[in-house]
Amino acid sequence: MWWTGGGLLALVFPAVTVAIGYQLFGYPGVPFGFLVAGVATWYVGRLMNRSPDDPDDYHNEHRFFSIPMQYWALLWMVFALSQLVLMSLGKAGWQQQ
């Protein structure tokens, strides 16, 4: 199986936030969407994977491609940073007018 528990949210968050960012702000909204997705994935993943008995213990039952959900946030942050760099270099398909 590709995901366990709520791990599919690790893919849903960036799909939704990037789409909304692009619709509201055009291409400059894409890195913002990835940034919001990273924060949401980290927070929700840590919250969902926390053990109910011991808040300092994580059981990581919510996974996407066998990776605990909260760690997908790091990938979304890297995407946000890379899109910002590409946008600043003018190579991301977005041109200032």
Task: Walk me through this protein's architecture.
This protein is mainly α. 58% of the residues lie in helices and 6% in strands. It has helices at 9-25, 29-49, 72-89, and strands at residues 3-4, 63-64, 67-68. The longest helix has 21 residues, at 29-49. The chain starts with a strand and ends in an 8-residue tail after the last helix.
Strand order of the largest sheet: 1-2-3
Q: Major sheet, described briefly?
A: 3 strands, antiparallel
Helical segment tally?
3
Give the total of domains. Answer: 1
Overall, the morphology is elongated
Task: Tell how many strands the DSSP assignment holds.
Answer: 3
- Note the run of SSEs as H and E: EHHEEH
Distance between the termini: 46 Å
Rounded radius of gyration (Å): 15 Å
Percent of sequence in beta strands = 5-15%
Q: What number is the mean pLDDT?
A: 88
* Helical percentage: 55-70%
Detail the poorly predicted runs: none
Helix/strand/pairing category = mainly alpha
Short description:
The chain is mainly α and 97 residues long. The protein has helices spanning 9-25, 29-49, 72-89; strands at residues 3-4, 63-64, 67-68. The chain crosses the membrane at residues 69-89.
Task: From the structure above, extract its key features.
mainly alpha, 3-stranded antiparallel beta sheet, transmembrane helix, membrane, transmembrane, about 100 residues
